[in-house]
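STRUCTURE:
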């Protein structure tokens, strides 16, 4: 065994003794041949490095999954709230503002204009009842989910709405300027005109140079999106935009443009550009 092998042997031996309790590697077999002994330790050390390079079990979990065991819980059991509430007409009136008869008229009108597709989780009566309770009582989504036994999409609802609005791009039904892009988070599909950040699983198995490039891209992407989110926050300080819109839909664009201009003026005042 030459000097270089001896130095490598000492490093590998110390590392092996330090971490042998953390790995599944068996202790090296004794052999009178020093070179064979060195090769066995080298093989064990390589197995240890491979095990250390594996990503942690929780590296791609959400923060609630790291804090809470079984954060999502069991699957929701759909509750037929309509069948229970319809038996108590007065409470039905308090919750919805509709009598049982007028509610049935709403169900008939909606059913005639409702395009059902796929497997429906709950009945039309429960869906309308949920909507009326939400509008009249304004409970939280969590309370509605526990009452009706359904799950709300939350921020994923934006991605589903994006799929329904049709193609976006130059010359498409929803015209979009060429050479322009929309910054979106990773819940959206990564395709023109959307640009989404790289996910952790798309970075961890790449080469060192590619990891550096993708992480830098995510930083730039995040910085620009944070700027946009701050602008949205300034616009939502106007309650007409930040709360439930109670005016005719055709007024929304003009009201939004007015609030955006006032938000820009407020930002200029705070920065001292306006005297």
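SEQUENCE:
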């Amino acid at each position: 065994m030459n000097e270089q092998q001896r130095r490598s042997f000492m490093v590998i031996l110390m590392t092996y003794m330090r971490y042998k309790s953390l790995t599944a590697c068996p202790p090296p077999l004794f052999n009178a041949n020093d070179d064979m002994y060195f090769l066995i330790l080298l093989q064990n050390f390589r197995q240890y490095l491979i095990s250390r390079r594996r990503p942690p079990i929780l590296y791609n979990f959400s923060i609630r999954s790291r804090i809470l065991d079984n954060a999502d819980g069991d699957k929701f059991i759909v509750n037929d709230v309509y069948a229970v509430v319809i038996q108590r007409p007065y409470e039905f009136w308090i919750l919805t503002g509709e009598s049982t008869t007028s509610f049935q008229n709403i169900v008939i009108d909606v059913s005639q204009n409702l395009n059902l597709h796929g497997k429906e989780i709950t009945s039309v009566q429960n869906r309308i009842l949920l909507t009326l309770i939400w509008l009249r009582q304004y409970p939280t989504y969590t309370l509605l989910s526990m009452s009706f036994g359904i799950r709300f999409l939350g921020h994923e609802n934006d991605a589903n709405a994006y799929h329904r609005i049709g193609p976006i791009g130059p010359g498409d039904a929803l015209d979009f300027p060429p050479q322009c892009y929309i910054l979106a988070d990773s819940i959206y599909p990564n395709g023109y005109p959307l640009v989404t950040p790289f996910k952790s699983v798309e970075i961890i198995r790449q080469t060192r140079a590619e990891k550096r490039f993708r992480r830098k891209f995510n930083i730039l992407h995040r910085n620009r999106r944070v700027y946009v989110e701050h602008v949205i926050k300034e616009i939502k300080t106007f309650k007409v935009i930040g709360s439930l819109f109670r005016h005719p839909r055709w007024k929304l664009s003009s009201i939004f443009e007015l609030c955006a201009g006032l938000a820009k003026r407020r930002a200029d005042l705070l920065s001292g550009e306006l005297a």
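REMARK: The mean pLDDT is 76.
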